[in-house]
Design brief:
Bound molecules: phosphoenolpyruvate, manganese (II) ion
CATH class of the largest domain: Alpha Beta
Structural class: alpha/beta
Number of strands: 14
CATH superfamily of the largest domain: Aldolase class I
Strand order of the largest sheet: 7-8-9-10-11-12-13-14
Number of domains: 2
Number of helices: 10
Largest sheet: 8 strands, parallel, barrel
CATH topology of the largest domain: TIM Barrel
CATH architecture of the largest domain: Alpha-Beta Barrel
Strand content: 15-25%
Amino acid sequence: MIVILKSNPNPNQLESLKNWIHGKGINIHESTGDSHQILGLVGDTSKLDMDLISALDIVEDVKRVQEPYKNANRKFHPEDTIVNVLNKTKIGGKNLTLIAGPCSVETEKQMIEVAHAVKAAGATVLRGGAFKPRTSPYAFQGLGKEGLRLLMLASRESGLPIVTEIMEISQLPLFDDVDIIQVGARNMQNFNLLKELGSQKKPILLKRGMSATYEEWLMSAEYLMSEGCEDVILCERGIRTFETYTRNTLDLAAIPVLKKLSHFPVVIDPSHATGKADLVEPLAMAAVAAGADGLMIEVHNDPAHALCDGKQSITPEVFAKIAKKTLSLKAYLNSEEA
Ligand code: PEP
Ligand code: MN
């Protein structure tokens, strides 16, 4: 971080700024030019509040030369994070993890049928929403606690670990038996929720906010990690653009960029990214080609009658075809790299 001082700074104020910086364990390299004096801060500046320094009378400007996230940064954590889910499946590394299931949990029959079908096709994690963040307050809001019960039943029957979305801190006690907790796009910057989730032990699937930058997304991951959470999975689910044909626009560049900037596994959700069942396959293939560590796909046994997101849901038969193609593409890419 570089602090540019105003000309002729008040010496007492400058002394106290320097003492404060030293007190944070950071060294200062000073350089004095014709018109300005510059302080180069050397050390871990990720915990320094830039705005606080900018607001000082003697400070002209503050610039970061390093990313504001540390725990999430690949520079400080060169190894890939590989999330081990109950010793049943690993997310990250050379794996392609298929996460599949309906948008929302509706009935026992639906959950059991879908769970068995996606498992047979190669999925290793079952998804299903019990608490649904819906744009309209009149739309189906999910079955809540009963939905979690059905999801767990399907998990026991199929042996698949589960991922499901939490919407607020007060729901956390209900999530004791959930294997991966999802933070949805709408809650990516719910910082109180992130802090609470960061201090518990479960892996977190953190979806990208609809108009969040990579840095904002990684800062949300930093919130989780700063509380002790190590198992973060990033999920790109499409962003808001001017295009209206698709529900969102899938940002494929997010895969290589996030794998460069951070050490987390990156999962792609082609269902929410497009909103259209027939676009799931081509974008799933593209995501794997671009290096995705996993895919999260909405699968319904009867998409036409789904209570939520039926248009983007595929049948178990279509899922089986996509699973086969994406898993063989991943195997081919791994063999080319070996
Ligand atoms: C979901 O996965 O069911 C969901 C609501 O996704 P998003 O937060 O990406 O809209
Ligand atoms: Mn959905």
